[in-house]
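Let's practice the habit of predicting before peeking. Look at the sequence and jot down your guess about where helices and strands might fall. Then scroll down.
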Amino acid sequence: MARLVFAVLCLLTVVAWMVPDLEQLGARDDLAVVATATVASPDDAALPRLGGHEVLVPSDPRGHFVMSMMLNSTPTRMLADTGATVVALRESDARRVGIFVGRNDYRQPINTANGQAFGAPVRIASMRIDAIELNDVEAIVMPDESLQTNLLGMSFLSRLERFEISGGQLVLAD
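Done guessing? Here is the structure:
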């Protein structure tokens, strides 16, 4: 738990320092989806293949990977951040996607560049970017004044088959 708090603290500090005007950048709608499927042997052909999709997210002019994802079937802007242990949502966006937290739920202390804040641990039922979808994703909800933009953290990224940066693009593969 202490590592989670420290990781979120570091993440929020970096985001606050590096991305002061992220809202002005907007989400990238020029994502490419590539479906891939390979059969290793005739025996494998009878097995259903789950996943096998790649999503390519181009970097913005600052080199960040901002994208529109579907959270609980609602479009939501996210900034990919491998330094974030979990997905982090602004309180207003959490409400918009059907995640409601009460004042007593903000029990996870987090230090940010703007001082100490408290986050509310939650689970996101469904997160999808194009053909890639994950269910029951660990996340934390932060007050809007403590988080400038939603963060796509490792609780989503680490569940993919792979993710990498290649040729100025973030490659997500399931």
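How did you do? Confidence is low (pLDDT under 50) at residues 4-49.
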